[in-house]
Specification:
This protein is α/β, with parallel strands linked by helices and 398 residues long. It has helices at residues 44-60, 80-93, 105-119, 149-162, 176-191, 210-214, 231-242, 282-288, 302-319, 327-335, 347-355; strands at 12-16, 23-34, 67-75, 98-101, 122-125, 142-144, 167-173, 195-202, 221-225, 247-250, 272-277, 340-342, 360-364, 367-368, 380-387, 390-396.
Length: 398
């Protein structure tokens, strides 16, 4: 998901959570790149919270490679240029072994192409959902724990058609995320018999989208594929003020409390949205019971961030060193069958099995994580609706 053209200075902070008995000359350091500023700044902290919880749990259970696991974060600002600078610092100054992130698709691509590819660094994004990541030339180094928008677009199309919404107008933020999502939605919706009355890009960062909205009035059902903190809020607010639309729809980037700032929530009651979800089962139940500072289990992309960080730590333990070489192969080993199941939080069990030479297969908070050749995973897309001024999850979309 996500990208914005905004060049900002990179701010990096370090999180070091360790049990007192951990050795100081062992362990590993991983990085996190996310949009702490920019259009997804309200979404990023709880995503980071998912990764932070992993570090805390692992260190409480003895650490990685017998020592402390450290996590250093950097602001990619949902922007390719800022993310490249963030990745350069994490990779070439902080010498991280691997990176959780980035979040916006363009941010991930910019960070990886900037220093990741030349440094041979594994990236695991919990939120970059644009189809563009599937075809990235990455030497098997870039993975994601959230499904592609190729799936989210199909599921959203199916949901709208099932609700009897037979025509839509789409406006999308003009970047990899917006265009990829819009293309997938339009193709599936049309194939299902729906009519796309308009499908138009808009530029991020404008104060006035009334002209763009004027070109979308061929349908009263408005789909906005953008970010809650940025153009998503502005477009939705001005669409409500126009009185030209009766139904509002958004994707995962719109799911945030900030979306409704300055908007009469009664006017958008029933707003439909989608995001990545999780199946039912023991792994999800265990994860949902976790608590921690800065952690919200059901926050958008928090489960996927938890899985990305846990998988990266498992891969480092499996690889047996902080070397970047061999880490991708180790990641595929610990995430796929065959192997004894490892569930969220089961770090001690995983380390014992790895040391014994036993294959493991991590089943995560977001479901199974069997990466395909492109580093993608299958997944579940859930429906949300605005009810009483809040987003409420309604269940998986069939």
């Amino acid at each position: 998901m996500f990208k914005k053209t905004l060049t900002l200075a990179v701010a990096a902070t370090a999180l070091s959570i360790a049990a007192p008995a951990l050795a100081q000359d062992t362990g590993a350091t991983i990085g996190f790149i996310g949009g702490f500023t920019g259009p997804i700044e309200s979404l990023t902290p709880p995503i980071f919270g998912g990764a932070e919880l992993v570090v805390k749990q692992i260190n409480e259970q003895g650490g990685v490679l017998g020592g402390e696991l450290k996590l250093i974060s950097a602001d990619g600002a949902c922007d390719a240029t800022a993310a490249a600078a963030a990745a350069d610092k994490l990779i070439n100054t902080d010498n991280v072994t691997g990176i959780v992130g980035a979040l916006c698709t363009g941010e991930t691509i910019g960070a990886f192409n900037g220093s990741g590819l030349s440094g041979g660094v594994v990236f695991i994004s919990p939120a970059s959902s644009a189809p563009a990541l599937t075809t990235l030339e990455d030497n098997d180094l870039v993975y994601r724990t959230t499904p592609s928008d190729a799936l989210q677009g199909v599921k959203l199309a199916n949901l709208l058609l099932a609700k009897g919404v037979n025509d839509i107008a789409i406006t999308y933020v003009n970047n990899d995320y917006g265009k990829g999502f819009a293309d997938a939605l339009a193709a599936a919706y049309t194939a299902g018999g729906g009519t796309v009355a308009a499908n138009l890009a808009h530029e991020e960062g404008k104060a006035d989208y009334r002209a763009e909205l004027g070109n979308l009035v061929a349908s009263q059902n408005l789909v906005i594929l953008a970010y809650a903190n940025a153009s998503g809020n502005t477009v939705l607010r001005q669409a409500v003020e126009s009185g030209n639309f009766t139904t509002y729809v958004g994707g995962d980037g719109m799911v945030g409390d900030d979306l409704l700032n300055g908007i009469d929530t009664a006017a958008v009651e029933g707003l439909i949205a989608t995001r990545a979800g999780a199946p039912t089962g023991e792994a999800v139940d265990i994860y949902n019971a976790f608590t921690g500072e800065n952690f919200t289990a059901n926050a958008t992309y928090a489960p996927q961030a938890y899985d990305a960080a846990f998988l990266l730590a498992l891969a480092i333990e499996k690889n047996g060193s902080t070397s970047r070489e061999g880490l991708a192969a180790a990641l595929r080993d610990v995430s796929s069958a065959p192997g004894e199941k490892i569930l969220p939080g089961e770090w001690t069990k995983a380390v014992e099995l790895i040391k014994a030479g036993t294959d493991i297969d991590y089943e995560g908070a977001g479901g199974p994580l069997d990466f395909d050749a492109a580093g993608d995973v299958d997944g579940i897309i859930v429906e949300l609706a605005v009810e009483g001024g809040k987003f409420v999850e309604k269940g998986a979309i069939q």
